Input
Amino acid sequence: GRMGVACLLALWVLALHRLASVRQRPVASALLASALATGFSLYWGFLPFLGGFPWFLWWLHRTARSESEPERTVNAREIAVLAALATALYLTHAHWFAMAGLWLAFSGLRARMPVRLQLLRGLALIPGALLGVSWLGVVRVMGLDSTLRWVSNPLQRWPPLSGVRDRYASHTDDPRKSP
Output
C-alpha cells in the first residue's frame, strides 16, 4: 500500500544520490532527478517501472566494474550477481531487462572486451529471458490481448479543437456548402 510506495520512492531517491556520489556528480543533479520520483508516471501505473530504476542503476554499477578489469572481474560469482540483477530487472519491467541487455552488449563493445568474456557476461541474461518466454506461453494460454484500442478519437476529447472538429465534420463535397 502506501508504505510500499513510500519505500519505493525512498529507494529511488537513495539510488540516485548514491549514483551521484559514486560518479562524483553534483548533488543538484541528484536532487533534480529525485523530483521525477513523484511525477505523473506514478499515478499512471508505472510503479513496477519505477521500482526497476534502482535495480538498473545497480546493474550499471556492476557492469561498469566488469568493464574496467574484465579478466579479473568476469567470474562465476559476478555472472551469478548479474543474473540475479537481470532477473530482478525482468520482474520489475521487461523494458528494464531489454535495456540491461542492450547496455551489456554496447558497454562490452565500448570497452573492447574480448568476445569470450562478453559471452560469459551474456549468460547472466538467460534466467530473465527464460522467464519472459515462459510468461509469453502463459499469456497465450490465458488469451490475454494487449492490443491498443481507441474507444474514441483523442481529438474528440480535446475541447480546444471542438470548433475545428465541428467545422470539418460538417464539410460536404458540395463546394457551395464547404467552409
